[in-house]
Structures are given as structure tokens and as C-alpha cells.
Amino acid sequence: MLTGPGATIGKARSLRRQMSLPEVMLWRELRQRPAGFKFRRQHPAGPYILDFACLQSKLAIEVDGAAHDRGEAPLHDELRDERLANQGYRTLRIAARDVLSNLDGVLRLVTAQCSAAQPLHRPSAGPPPRSGEDL
Predict the structure, then answer these.
(1) Structural domain that includes position 86
(2) Secondary element (H or E) of residue 14
(3) Residue 15, domain member (yes or no)
(4) Which residue, 93, 119, 124, 130, shows the most beta carbons closer than 10 Å to its own?
(5) Cα 90 to the chain's mean position, in Å?
(6) Rounded distance, CA 87 to CA 84, Å?
(7) Residue 66's CB: how many other CB atoms inside 10 A?
């Protein structure tokens, strides 16, 4: 499970009260547990704070505004995504304008990404024997 130091946890709590409009719109839907997936908002992950995370699917969701396209932000985002990948998490970056203009499409994308990450149950030898049965 991802977590962070005390300072990051405190900042995450603060950011939950200062979410942008696209984040609020997306959270309103994600908190309903679409397709049965549970999401966390402003979740601490080491020195980072993820906009949203589905821990069950190991998916980090970032709602990116125009600032993510300028300056050194793309490099910082790439490094962050790489560090999360090293912990087994994939990052789904969604443009804020897409959330504002196509929320249903964004939700379908998010749930599809969560579903794709779910391991299928494939017991190699079938179910275990019942109590008292021979192998």
C-alpha cells in the first residue's frame, strides 16, 4: 500500500479541501465506486500526492491542467510516473478539459483501466480438497 511521511499526509488532507473543479466533478463520480472499484482522493504516495488512486488495481489517476504541459512539469511528471511504476503502480493522466467536457467517457476509461489491471483467478490445480477428502 502506498503511503507517505507525516508532512505529505498533512498536505494531502489540506489538498482535499482545495480540489479543482475537474477534480471535484471526477471525485463526485468515483466516490460512488463505479464498477465496484474503491478510489481514494489526494492519496499520499511517498513524497507525492496522487489526485486519485485505486489501490486494488494499483492505478494512480492524475487530472492534469495546462500547467503540466509547460516548463519542467513534463519531466517531473515522467520521473514521478517512473517511481510509481517501480512500486507496481500505473499512472493514468487525464486532461482537466476532458473531465469537464466528457465526464462519462473519462469514467469509462478509468473503470476499463482498473478492470484491465485485475488479475484473473486461475487456480492451477482446481479448488482445494474438502476437509476429510484424500488428495
Answers:
(1) 6-117
(2) helix 6-16
(3) yes
(4) 93
(5) 8
(6) 5
(7) 10
